[in-house]
Amino acid sequence: MRIDRLDPEVLADHLTIELTTFGRRSGRPRRIEIWWFNVDGRFVITGTPGKRDWYANVLANPEVIVHVAGADLSARARPVSDPAARARVFDNPNAGWYSSQAQRQRLIDESPMIEVDFGGK
User: Fold this and answer.
1) Given a cut of 80, is residue 9 above it in pLDDT?
2) Per-residue CA distances from 15 to 24, 26, 82, 95, 106 (Å)
3) What burial letters (b/e) apply to 46-57, b meaning 16+ CB within 10 Å?
4) Cβ distance 36 to 69 under 8 Å?
5) Which of 18, 59, 78, 97 is a Cys-bridge partner for 67, taking CB atoms 3.0 to 4.6 Å apart?
């Protein structure tokens, strides 16, 4: 399926995307495969706890490219720091990454997480 416009329902059907960030020192594009979720109408990218180059790159330069369903979508990313918003991501049915409350809390507290803004399109 090819995306010809930003249709949130079509975007939400894809849980795995590719994300291009720009190196915090080099400025060169860096492309990775990663998960994202549509939570409360917002697209959020996250991963498991730990230091991640993609996250450090976003902190240095929030301009990103989301590659999904054959489309390359320019966007701006911002870190998600609100604990309640972070919890909603891991309570999403597609994010069943944990088997205990302690694991869930660690994900909420320590996972790199950004929200992707497509400029209101």
Assistant:
1) no
2) 26, 29, 22, 10, 22
3) bbeeeebebbeb
4) no
5) 18
Tell me how far apart the alpha carbons of residues 104 and 3 are, in angstroms, rounded to a whole number.
33
Please state, in angstroms and rounded to a whole number, the distance separating the CA atoms of residues 80 and 39: 12
CA within 13 Å, CB half, 49:
12
Q: Give the H/E segment covering residue 88.
A: helix 83-90
Instruction: Please give the structure tokens belonging to residue 76.
Output: 């701006």
C-beta of residue 13 within 8 angstroms of C-beta of residue 68: no
DSSP letter, residue 54: H
Q: pLDDT of 65-118, one tens digit each?
A: 999 988 899 999 999 999 999 999 888 776 666 778 898 899 999 999 999 998
pTM: 0.85
How far, in whole angstroms, is CA 55 from its chain's centroid? 10
Q: Are 34 and 112 in contact (CB under 8 A)?
A: no
pLDDT score of 2: 43
**Which pLDDT does position 78 carry in this prediction?**
96
